Amino acid sequence: MFDNLQTVATRKRRFIALFIDWICISAYLILLLGIMQLVYLLVFNETPTFSSGQTQLISTLTSVIPIIILFSLMEGSARASTFGKRIKRLKISYPDHPKTRSIIRNIVKFLPWQLGHMGVIHGMYHNFNWVAMTLLSTSMLLAFLYIMMVLVRRDYRHVADLIAGTMVVKNNSLHP
């Protein structure tokens, strides 16, 4: 499927693109925090108390799902790249069905983040019992696996790329 390894993105460019995307996600989360604190102050005059389930739902609906949708739209578009990939002149290569494969790739890519959220939130409400620790450990192991795969595989693909059948490649067009 991906025979020409000359077009494969370098590790360095992939990690720099990942860092840029992380900065963009962090900026979104900080903005979200500021907006929600303002809403809580104006509407409730304090930060409301939420149950564990409510906190899980809020976390998923305001952080993980919007990021998965945004990244899936960007990577499933004609440019096939996130902010970081555009800056580093990289893109996702798809054998077919870029929109579907992009959604699959991003759900799998952000799974460790969601599991981490679930573990921390469960732990805060349940004194970091075995469920919380299992979720957190699984999250960290998956993140470690993703990074190690990029470091050791010749084609630099990680779990999300393998499941979605994608590859990060150099974008040699004039307009990344």
From TrEMBL:
InterPro entries cross-referenced by the UniProt entry: RDD
Name of this protein: RDD family protein
TM spans (from-to): 15-43, 63-82, 130-152
Domain RDD: 9-165
Localization terms from the record: Membrane
Membrane topology: Multi-pass membrane protein
Predominant subcellular localization, coarse grouping: membrane
Entry keyword set: Membrane, Transmembrane, Transmembrane helix
Record has Membrane as a keyword: yes
Keyword Heme assigned: no
Domain of life: Bacteria
GO annotation, cellular component aspect: membrane
Pfam families documented for this protein: RDD
